[in-house]
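Bump. Still looking for S1 RNA-binding domain-containing protein C-alpha cells.
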Amino acid sequence: MNNQIGTIQTLEVLRKIDTGYVLENDILLHHNETDSELEAEQSVDVFIYQDKKDQTVATTQLPAIQIDTYGWAEVVEVLPHLGVFVNIGTSKEILVSKDDLPLFESVWPMIGDELYVSLGKDRKGRLLALPATEIVFERQLFEAAPDGLLNTVISGRIYRTDREGSACITEEGYRGFIHHTERKEEPRLGELVEGRVIEVKQDGTLNISLRPLKQHSMGEDAEMILAQLEENNGVIPFSDKSDPEDIRGTFNISKAAFKRALGKLMKERKIEQRDGKTYLISK
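Sorry for the wait, here they are.
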C-alpha cells in the first residue's frame, strides 16, 4: 500500500464508521477530509497520504502536486532543525527537508514564499516535498521570451540561488538568470523579486538585473559610501584606483558603479581622495 502514498486513486467505499469511511485496502477517510456523504460500494477519487501516526489515510482534497508532478507550493512554516513545510492544497502540510534547501539559512524561504516542488518519499516511506532541480526546469515547457522585453520591469520567483547568481521563473513563465553582480544581496529561495530585463538570449531565456538604472543607483551607492565614511571616522581605504574585488567585497557594487558614486560626491564637494584613500570633507 505504501506505493500509493502521494498519488490520487479511485477507491471503493467498504463501509461507514463513526469517524468516517473505510475504503478498500483498509484506508481511512475521515469525515473532515470529505465534504459529501458516501455510500458503501461507491467509488471515490482520493489522495493517499500518511497522518501523524504514520497511518495510511485519504482525503478528497485532490492536490495538483503529486509524485513526479510539479507545482508551486506556499511555505507555511520554517523549522531550522528540519526544513520548511509547504501547503500542497490538502490539510496535510509537507516537509521540504533541510537537506534539499540551501546551505545558508539566510537564503532559506520565508513564510509566504513559494517553491516549485513534487512529492517523494524518505527512507521510511513518508512524504517529502522535493524542490525541482535545474534539469527539471530545462525539461518543463516554460515559454521562450519574445522580443520587446529589453529594459522592461518583470517579476519572477527564485528557484535556485548560489554565489554565481540566482535563477527564476517569471510570472509569464520565462526563465531568467540574475548574475551576482546584478543584485545587492542574494534573494531567498522561493522569493518573488522584481527586476529589469537586460538581455533576451537566443534560447529565449532572460538576463535580469535587480539593480536600479545607473542614474538611480548612483545616488544609493553614494549614500552607502557616505555611511561607510561616517562609521570609520571620515576615512576609508578605497579610491577610484582600488582593486575591483576589494570594492565588491566591501560595497557589493562594481568598480564602475563605485567610481560613478565617488564622482558624484566629489562634484558635490563632500569627499576628497588622497594617497589611495577617500576622506569626508568636514563642513
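Residues 71-132 form a domain with the OB fold (Dihydrolipoamide Acetyltransferase, E2P) fold (CATH 2.40.50.140).

Edit: fixed formatting.
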